[in-house]
């Protein structure tokens, strides 16, 4: 946290234009600590760093008090002070106005934006964290019948490759990074546990891997330009090779084989989230 000049020194060499937001409480430091502690407690498991339970509560409160006491706002550059008692929309509008006034790029007026929708997405992402025991790696459609999937693949396309034990269509990959598309994440959270019928269109294969392309003409939310099921890969080849295998830029690759599947081919899956 950028609480004082010493903590802000690591930005000095970057030449960044920073807008500093200072949080305060009209009743002073103790009241600020109290409301911050209460918010940490109410966030529960959605807060991955602090947990203000009976065992950790005192330590968390001391940490918050130490931060509030140590805080020294900068004496130069744009700065606004906001009260933690203000509602989120009010604070967001104030910060947005300052960014508009001092930023190097033009940003839309808040009147042209749907603040309620944006806060709704943020709250949905927050509640998402409470539903899972640890960091989610990806969202997917888990295929219900693996044997049905394998029936669609010519046996020779599996020679020398390791076949996946289970099959899925990745709809959103997170890895260890923050989600870059919270709206898509919110849509997928809303579909969690629901079933869907998928339409496989073709089987593609090369010496490195084999995958089934899945049609998506708006049937399901997905970040991947080439929705697919990774079937098998040669030793040492990651499943991500399927994206390259299905890309049109490899259409003329003599090592690549694509077999169209019969019209009306269907498989069933369920929307899920997976972690490492």
UniProtKB/TrEMBL annotation:
InterPro entries attached to this UniProt entry: tRNA_lig_PDEase
Domain tRNA ligase phosphodiesterase: 196-248
One GO MF term: ATP binding
Superkingdom of origin organism: Eukaryota
GO biological process: tRNA splicing, via endonucleolytic cleavage and ligation
Protein name: tRNA ligase phosphodiesterase domain-containing protein
Annotated source species: Trypanosoma cruzi
């Amino acid at each position: 946290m950028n609480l004082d000049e010493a903590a802000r020194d690591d930005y000095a060499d970057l030449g960044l234009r920073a807008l500093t937001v200072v949080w305060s409480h009209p009743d002073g430091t103790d009241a600020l600590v109290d409301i911050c502690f209460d918010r940490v407690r109410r966030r529960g498991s959605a807060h991955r760093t602090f947990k203000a339970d009976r065992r950790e509560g005192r330590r968390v409160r001391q940490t918050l008090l130490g931060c509030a006491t140590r805080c020294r706002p900068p004496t130069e550059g744009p700065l606004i002070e906001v009260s933690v008692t203000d509602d989120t929309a009010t604070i967001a509008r104030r910060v947005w106005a300052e960014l508009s006034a001092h930023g190097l790029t033009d940003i839309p007026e808040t009147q042209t934006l749907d603040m309620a929708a944006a806060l709704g997405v943020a709250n949905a992402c927050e509640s998402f964290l409470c539903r899972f025991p640890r960091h989610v790696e990806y969202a997917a459609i888990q295929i219900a019948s693996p044997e049905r999937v394998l029936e669609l693949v010519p046996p020779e396309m599996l020679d020398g490759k390791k076949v996946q034990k289970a099959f899925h269509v990745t709809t959103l990959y997170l890895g260890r990074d923050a989600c870059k598309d919270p709206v898509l994440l919110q849509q997928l959270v809303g579909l969690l546990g629901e079933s869907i019928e998928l339409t496989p269109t073709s089987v593609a294969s090369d010496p490195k891997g084999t995958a089934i392309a899945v049609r998506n003409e708006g049937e399901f939310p997905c970040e991947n330009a080439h929705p697919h099921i990774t079937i098998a890969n040669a030793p040492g080849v990651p499943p991500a090779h399927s994206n390259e295998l299905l890309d049109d830029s490899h259409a003329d690759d003599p090592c690549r084989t694509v077999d169209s599947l019969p019209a009306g081919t269907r498989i069933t899956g369920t929307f899920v989230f997976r972690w490492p």
